[in-house]
């Protein structure tokens, strides 16, 4: 009987489909993510640091609440890019930057207050005393010492990547990862959404003061925002990479709007796609030109038109 009561309680607690404005149904989407080993400041006190093995990957996350984390490379391996310095003791060496996801291109990390220390053996400690406004993702790799001497590049398909997620102080959704998604909703006319171009993709395209916007899933053609959504306006919070799309009225027919957040190289970018309709709108932040999730919105229902398995991060 106790088991039956527990089962009934779990059913009662399940997320339910709710009705939005004017009877629009907003579906609750549950996504199963791939298993990723995460490390945080709590592990410094209660657990052994996660071990990064060749061909696998681990993730460490730093935030204002969790400002340090540890991880370990396998015996005989060190991080790449290597710590620089004349001293032989690891914790006296200097953190020189990160690599891109493929382990080929050095990525500088301008914010101050971030350190990596080789504390003991193959154990490394990441610490941050201050955080940027915008979130970002960077990469380190565990590599053999002999290979590190020859090159500062890593083969991401063989070596163990350490994904370092540094959460910015802004709580608004940000385009920081390729192939990730975050879904927001505008509850009808007069609503707005705010999104950010993360640290890895700082340049908005089309950028202000342009009033153009990309159209469609492919984000390959531009039109005037006012033509697609009369009265809608995109504004920027001064001194930041945060943008607010306000819609005093909603279009009579479905429109798909797209803003791209680009990196310093045009080869790397994320996309913010907004699908709008009347009387309510769904805003999808699609962080890749390979659209993983696209919503169709109608006056009586909201359902995914295309959904492929992707790994996403939730801040």
From TrEMBL:
Name under which the protein is recorded: SAG-related sequence
Limits of the SRS domain: 181-267
Database matches in Gene3D superfamilies: SRS domain
Gene Ontology CC entries for this record: membrane
Pfam families registered for this protein in UniProt: SAG
InterPro entries: SRS_dom (IPR007226), SRS_dom_sf (IPR036755)
Organism expressing this protein natively: Besnoitia besnoiti
SUPFAM superfamilies assigned to the protein according to its UniProt record, in alphabetical order: Major surface antigen p30, SAG1
Superkingdom of origin: Eukaryota
């Amino acid at each position: 009987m106790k088991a039956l009561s527990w089962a009934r309680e779990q059913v009662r607690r399940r997320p339910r489909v709710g009705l939005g404005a004017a009877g629009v149904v907003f579906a609750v989407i549950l996504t199963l993510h791939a298993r990723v080993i995460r490390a945080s400041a709590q592990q410094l006190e209660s657990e052994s640091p996660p071990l990064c093995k060749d061909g696998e990957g681990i993730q460490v996350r730093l935030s204002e609440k969790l400002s340090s984390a540890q991880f370990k490379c396998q015996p005989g391996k060190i991080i790449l890019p290597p710590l620089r310095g004349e001293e032989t003791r690891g914790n006296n060496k200097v953190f020189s930057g990160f690599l891109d996801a493929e382990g080929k291109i050095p990525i500088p990390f301008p914010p101050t207050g971030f350190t990596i220390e080789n504390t003991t053996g193959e154990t490394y400690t990441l610490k941050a005393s201050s955080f940027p406004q915008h979130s970002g993702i960077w990469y380190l790799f565990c590599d053999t010492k002999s290979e590190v001497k020859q090159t500062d590049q890593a083969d991401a398909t063989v070596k163990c990547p350490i994904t370092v997620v540094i959460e910015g102080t802004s709580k608004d959704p940000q385009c920081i990862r390729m192939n990730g998604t975050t879904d927001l909703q505008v509850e009808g006319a007069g609503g707005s959404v705010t999104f950010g171009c993360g640290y890895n993709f700082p340049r908005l395209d089309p950028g202000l003061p342009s009033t153009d916007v990309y159209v469609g899933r492919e984000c390959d053609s531009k039109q005037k925002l006012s033509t697609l959504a009369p009265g809608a306006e995109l504004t920027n919070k001064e001194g930041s990479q945060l943008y607010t799309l306000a819609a005093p009225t909603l279009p009579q027919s479905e429109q798909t709007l797209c803003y791209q957040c680009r990196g310093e190289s045009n080869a790397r970018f994320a996309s913010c796609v907004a699908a709008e309709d009347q009387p309510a709108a769904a805003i999808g932040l699609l962080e890749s030109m390979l659209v993983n999730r696209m919503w169709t919105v109608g006056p009586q229902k909201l359902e995914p038109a295309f959904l492929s398995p992707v790994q996403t991060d939730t801040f």
